[in-house]
Structure formats: C-alpha cells, structure tokens
Design a protein that fits this description.
- This protein is an alpha+beta fold.
- The chain has helices at 2-13, 17-28, 33-37, 44-56, 75-101, and strands at residues 31-32, 60-65, 68-73.
- It has one domain: Arc Repressor Mutant, subunit A (Orthogonal Bundle), CATH 1.10.10.
C-alpha cells in the first residue's frame, strides 16, 4: 500500500529529536527557517537539512513568500501515518471483540481455610 511507505518514511524522519522539535513547532503555525532555528541547538543550515528530510518524508510542505520559504505541516503525510496506525488500532479492537465473545471458564475458587 502506498500510504504504508509514506507512513514508514514519516515515522523514520520523526525518529530524530531535532526533526520532531521542528515538526512540533510547525504544528503550531507555519514558519520560516530562521524562525524555526531560534532556540534549537543546531545551525540554520542544519534546520534546512532537517526540513529537506521532513519534506521528502511527506510531513512538511513549503511555499515561497518573497525571499523566504514558509514551511507548514503537510496533512497528506500526517494522514498516511494515521491511516497506518489506525490499521493496528482496528485490528486490536477486532481481536479484543473476538476475545470477549469467546466463552471463558471462571477461574478456580480458592478454598476458604
């Protein structure tokens, strides 16, 4: 499935703590590289490299605004991650329902002594 590849690439990209921090900042609002780099322990150039990876993973998109590029989260990549995770959630719920529907013997009683 195509969304599985996108989801796995997105999860791999978020494995890096700096990329997760950038991702979380972009969840709040779209930002330029300079704004994103403020307060991070990496250079502006490093932030640009992290953004490139996040973009390749389908998690961020950018648009030119004058001489700057403004980055925002890409809902398609996030949707792919959610769809992939929802598949596990659905299976877990189905397994739970099957377990509940099975007859079970009551546990053995202890002798009162």
């Amino acid at each position: 499935m195509a969304y599985t590849q996108t989801a796995l690439a997105a999860l791999a990209a978020l494995g890096d703590p700096t990329r997760r921090a950038i991702f979380e900042r972009l969840a709040a609002r779209p930002l330029a590289v300079g704004q994103l780099s403020e307060g991070l322990p990496v250079t502006r150039s490093a932030v640009s490299q992290h953004l490139k990876i996040l973009k390749q993973a389908g998690l961020v998109a950018d648009v030119s605004e004058g001489t700057r590029r403004i980055y925002r989260l890409d809902p398609r990549g996030i949707g792919a991650m959610r769809a992939w995770l929802d598949g596990f959630w659905t299976q877990a719920l189905d397994d739970f329902a099957a377990f509940v529907d099975q007859p079970h013997e009551p546990p053995p009683q202890k002798d009162p002594a």
